Amino acid sequence: MAGKIGLNVTQICLPRECTEDEIIEEVLKLNEDPRVHGVYLHLPPASLTSRVLNTLRPEKDVDGVSDLNVGRLVRGDMNQGFIPPLANAVMELLARHGETVLVVGGEGPLGVALQCLMQRRGMVVLHSRRSSEVLQKQANAVVLLAAGHMDVPPTWLRPGTAVIHCGSALMTEDHGMEMSGVGPLTAALRMQNVVQSSSRWAQGQQYRPWTLRSLKLQPLSPVPSDIEISRAQTPKPVDQLAQEIGLLQEETEAYGRTKAKVRLSLLDRLREQPDGKYVLVAGITPTPLGEGKSTVVIGLVQALSAHLKLNSFACLRQPSQGPTFGVKGGAAGGGYAQVIPMEEFNLHLTGDIHAITAANNLVAAAIDARMLHEATQKDKALYSRLVPSVNGVRRFSPIQIARLRRLGISEIDPSALMPQEVSSFVRLDLDPAKVTWQRVVDTNDRFLRKITVGQASTEKGHVRETQFDIAVASEIMAILALADGLGDMKTRLGRMVVGSSRSGQPVTAEDLGVSGALAVLMKDAIKPTLMQTLEGSPVFVHAGPFANIAHGNSSVLADKLALKLVGEDGFVVTEAGFGADIGMEKFFNIKCRASGLRPNVVVLVATVRALKMHGGGPNVLLNAVPCHHWARGGRGSVELAQAVKQAGSQPSHFQFLYSQETPIVEKIRMIAQKVYGADDIELSPEAQAKIDYYNQQGYGKLPICMAKTHLSLSHLPEKKGTPTGFTLPIRDIRASIGAGFIYPLVGTMSTMPGLPTRPCFYDIDLDPVTEEITGLF
Fold first, then answer.
1. Who's near 382: CB < 8 A, 6+ residues apart?
2. Name one GO cellular component term (predicted).
3. Residue 195: CB atoms within 10 Å
4. 650: burial class by Cβ within 10 Å (0-12, 13-18, 19+)?
5. pLDDT digit string (tens) for 66-95?
6. Higher pLDDT, 438 or 322
């Protein structure tokens, strides 16, 4: 239905019986094809309906006939539009003739374009729907726009009058695709438009300066509730925000009016663009209610962008439903330093955590199902079910072929495997006592900390104890936060270790055959979500691992995208969860190691509340800055923004706490002694056995992610301030091989929080008439 001519232009020539919908379907395909920079709708006039013309993207409309391009021409704005090539050809010919022109026929886009161009050149334009002897004798030139055959008797013309017949340059039922008269010149000018379109496309791929429009704040005193403040501000449409910060239309996927996913193709487009300055916001050891690091991030970004007029981007984690409905509440910031709409931010957002939950629990289901089937079937029956005959043909799937290769089996014909090879292929031989993968749910549910599965009669007595973790503790969440692309994420998902075989060999998600399905479930979750602050500054919300039971930072991808978008002189501000002892330490030694990025500035948040809880703070040193963003928005953080700008201009002396070559035990000891202030560590026999096993499997070079209480530098939440004289107990050690770290469990740390006596959900409600939410904070 479509044939390409030239390098970047496509000509549509459709069968005459095609419907309008079929034409539009073809046009839509060409709209989305990045290889096509121009489209020529070479169709019968009856097929060039307004709906067809306006389906074509204006930037690919090299005939300049869409309503938008005609409007641009009339307005005189040709920075983005195109002059219709046929009209341009006529004007080229008219340049050698008189100033009075009779236009016969042509009431569509071409006629409008010609009249506009002629009047702009100062010509006198006469109109007639058909040939007229009286009018033609007044004209120096006659332009016949009507399609089809049209004779002009010579006696009707003044001597020397030029007649330009455009009908043969249009497609008509009589002449088909015959080109004559102005046809060759029209074709040449059309290709000129294609060149111009290609050039604009190439320029559009370059970095675009920001045109950010800040939203005005009118802070009230006393400060209203967070949700009242959020509702009082009208956010910009997300497509407008995306355009202001230099995103292309094809780089965003809108989720409603105020949030959008951003495609990773942006990294390829801006790969040569220098990064901006990288700022980390961390905090002192917090109270159970949190100390406002997110609020500082947002207030700082608002000050940098709305008040100092510097490109700046906030990168935050997606909040878990656990704390949102538990004690801490939401994580959108607070007061006049918030991400808006805060209800959308704090609840489902774009479904990333749901995708993680689905992917995680698919792995869990696959584990138990595989153990059941292996325990109840012989090799031959397992093989026939794992590699079934479809229409008389048996073949391995690509994932199964990859498993054969890992087993050292080169054969790909299912009928050619030897019995021992069949047995090795079908049996993972997972030890139920050594399954390390848990199910997850995004709710604080203490009664799922230990459960028994397989109690139904259909599971044939295959009962085992297991547990649920909170969804943000899933290794898949950590992978999402540390992956640098879809391919990297898929590889990491495949190498997740879910347990050990009875012979002590690690069993991975790829061994289960589920890695491809996991990538499918996570393909949209890997794209960061774009939102905005109360003052219209951009925010990326992506990933949400806790810092006490995971590494506690937003995604590498969000940071990398933002660093390209802000430009060399801009700022990207992100946060590390909980206190500096866990969130910041993991940012340095895990996230920066994985991403290759290095921070330029660190902002340490210290609140009066936290200082009081920990027994009084240290003396205030030079360059400590008071902040009032909660009550005043960005204006209340201008002093902090200026300090960050000054600090960002200084050289960074970043270094890792330990090298990858350092043994696992010594890495743990270095963190305990140099970060927490412990005298030493104490390994349980189980933890020591795990270290020996991980060393044997070649995991010894992985970084350490301590799972520890966030309420104290020690393992005991009640020990405040800077405790000394303690030994840090390591009761167990686990490995997230896909994410790429080892995580010791310190003390009685749990991976499933519980609800308090009075959770936040007591105050959360919905008006069924207005759909207004109350009680979120």
1. 373, 374, 426, 427
2. cytosol
3. 16
4. exposed
5. 999 999 999 888 888 999 999 999 998 888
6. 438
430 in helix, strand or coil? strand
Is there a contact between 575 and 313 (Cβ–Cβ < 8 Å)?
Answer: no
Say which amino acid occupies 49: T
Distance CA 555, CA 306 (A): 25
pLDDT at 131: 55
Instruction: Say how far apart CA 220 and CA 117 lie, in whole Å.
Output: 55
Q: In the numeric block, which tokens belong to residue 590?
A: 């895990």
Provide the phi-psi class of 60: left if phi over 0, else alpha when psi is between -120 and 50, else beta: alpha
3-state class (DSSP) for residue 436:
coil
User: Is there a contact between 80 and 111 (Cβ–Cβ < 8 Å)?
Assistant: no
Tokens standing for residue 341: 């709409």
Q: Which of 129-138, 210-219, 261-270, 552-561 is the least confident region?
A: 129-138
Report d(CA 648, CA 132) in Å as an integer. Answer: 76
Query: What's at 709, amino acid-wise?
Result: T
Residue pair 510/738 in contact by the 8 Å Cβ criterion: no
Q: What's the CA gap between 285 and 273, in Å, rounded?
A: 37
Q: Assign residue 391 a region (left: φ > 0; alpha: ψ between -120 and 50; beta: otherwise).
A: left
Residue 723 tokens read as 């405790």
What is the token pair recorded at 463? Answer: 């009962």
Structure tokens at 366: 């696959």
Residue 193: C-alpha distances to residues 40, 248, 469, 555 (Å): 11, 21, 59, 42
How far the first Cα of the chain sits from its last, in Å, is 56
pLDDT tens digits for range 214-224: 999 999 999 99
CA-CA-CA-CA torsion sign (505, 511, 516, 520): negative
Residue 144 has what pLDDT?
Answer: 83
Fill in the amino acid letter for 690.
Answer: K
- Per the CB < 8 A criterion, the answer to whether 621 and 628 are in contact is no
Name which of 41, 39, 107, 118 is nearest 74 in CA terms: 118
The strand ranges marked E within 111-156 are: 124-128, 141-144
Structure token digits, residue 220: 């009230």
Listed in order, strand segments (DSSP E) in 343-423 are 389-390, 393-394
In terms of C-beta density within 10 A (0-12 exposed, 13-18 middle, 19 or more buried), how is residue 227 classed?
A: buried
- What would the DSSP string read from start to end of 185-249? HHHHHHHHHHHHHHHHHHHHTS-----PPPPP----SS---HHHHHHHS-PPPHHHHHHHTT--G
Structure tokens that stand for 686 in this block: 């189980």
